[in-house]
Structure formats: C-alpha cells, structure tokens
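Incident review: delayed structure delivery

Summary: a single-chain prediction request sat in the queue longer than the usual turnaround. Root cause was a stuck worker, restarted by the on-call engineer. No data loss occurred. The affected request and its eventual output are reproduced below so the record is complete for anyone auditing the incident later.

Affected input:
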Amino acid sequence: MRIGLLEDVFGGVVLAILLQMAPIERSERMMDAVLALAGTEISFDHHTVTLWPRAEDVAALDPGLLRTKAKLGYRAERLVGAAQYLASHPVSLRGLAKIPEEEAMKVLTAIPGIGKYSAAIIFGQSTPPIDAWSVVIMSELYDRRTPAHTRQEIGRVQEELAKRWGKWSWLAFAYILNDIDNLSKEYPLSRVK
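Output delivered after worker restart:
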C-alpha cells in the first residue's frame, strides 16, 4: 500500500487551531475531546479508528457545545468559523500542492482563525511553523543559548532554518520535534520536561 498526499485540509486546520496558545498536553486533550464529540469512526479488520471530523459536520455545531464539552475556549468559535468557511470554499491539499507555496499560504490564511504559523502547520513545505516555544528549542540546540525575547526572534530562527536546510527546513523541523525526547537527554532544553 502506498500512502499519498491526503486530500482534506480540515484535519490540519483542527490541529493548527487546537495547538494555538496551549501546551501540548492541553492541545492533546482538546484534540481527543473533538474526536470524541465529532470524529468519524471507521472499522476494518476488527479495528476501529476515529478520523478527524468533516468540515461540514463541525460547521453545523454550536460553538458553545465545543467550548463546554471539548473545553476549547476561544478556539471553539475559530474552529466553527473555519469549518463554515471550508464547507462553502473547499480547499484540497492536492490543489495546494499544484501552486507555489507562497500562493498556497495565502489560500490557507484566508481561512478564519488561520494565520501564517497555522498555515505552515497545515501545509508547510519549506516554511516551518515557528512559534515562541520552538524559538527557545532551536536556539538552545543550535546557538546554545536561551533567548530573552522569543517572539522577536521568530524571523531570525526561520531564516536560520532556511539557511541551514533550505527547502528541507520544514522536514528537519518536524524531525527535531519528533525526536525531542532523545535530544533533551543530550542537550539542556529548558522547555522539555
């Protein structure tokens, strides 16, 4: 079996919105709650898995339900707004892959609740999604220092990643995040416990 480019962007939109301004543990709890509330269950070979909900299904939800049942806070309105937009303005990853990355990012940032950082999570190719947390991680890994003003250094870190890895910077960034537990054993990373 060959895994190809998935078509739907809404799963990435859910992920991007639920990662906004939350520690990873909280984001994971919110994701689990959204999946339990609106996810799509499928069964095969005596296994059941839950897929991200469809935009059309979330578009019909009351944000108050997501706020209270899934504990999304302000993200509830953003998620429902993004779902309503995508239900009436479908966007596919396959379609985004056919246009220049800069243009694809403009398409994604037109979705309510999705900024440049979130667009990079959904469809980053050469642009990694750098936030204040990842500025600290990258600075501690590569500069051996903890920056005092993390938000002001986002652009610098993005430029450094682009210089170091070019078009592969998003993949390198993802590799680092997926190996963060091992890296924290070798490097003193203040934001990893």
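Verification: Residues 132-186 form one domain.
Action items: add queue-age alerting; document worker restart procedure.
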